[in-house]
């Protein structure tokens, strides 16, 4: 049921021949007869400065909705809200699926790298001895000399990199998956 339109001054309703009704910016409705009686750009009821808009079928839907029944508005807006909600949910699911797929790929890569590192740790390559070393006290080229040692005697004169087994012995690897990740 639509809200009845009536003049807020004389309380007349639309009839044949129908006088034009106008809505003021302050929210009052006037028939064209009462609107002509008052001062231009001033509301007859609250006496504030206002603008007027003639009500017709061409009036914007936002203004027309002020005169619709609440049940009609509820049906109209609930349908629009449902469409917006379904649209947003579809896009949320799409984004979630993308991130789940990306996480799965990263977890698989991490699993492969962890397995490779475990295999490398299990393999013990024969240690190379270097013929030209000044100090036999330290075999790790990455160790920091103590203050008592002569700094020049703590370094190797390697012509190549340290072996894989020496490097792997210096690394700590946790093969157990993080509790934050689901495996």
TrEMBL record:
The keyword Zinc-finger applies. Residues 136-183 are annotated as: Disordered. Residues 136-151 have a biased composition (Polar residues). It holds the Pfam family zf-RING_5. It comes from the Eukaryota. SUPFAM superfamilies: RING/U-box. Residues 96-123 form a coiled coil. Keywords: Coiled coil, Ligase, Meiosis, Metal-binding, Zinc, Zinc-finger. Residues 152-165 have a biased composition (Low complexity). PROSITE patterns: ZF_RING_1 (PS00518), ZF_RING_2 (PS50089). GO terms for cellular component: synaptonemal complex. One of its GO terms (molecular function) is SUMO transferase activity. PANTHER family: E3 SUMO-PROTEIN LIGASE RNF212-RELATED, RING FINGER PROTEIN NARYA-RELATED. This is RN212 ligase. It comes from Pardalotus punctatus (spotted pardalote).
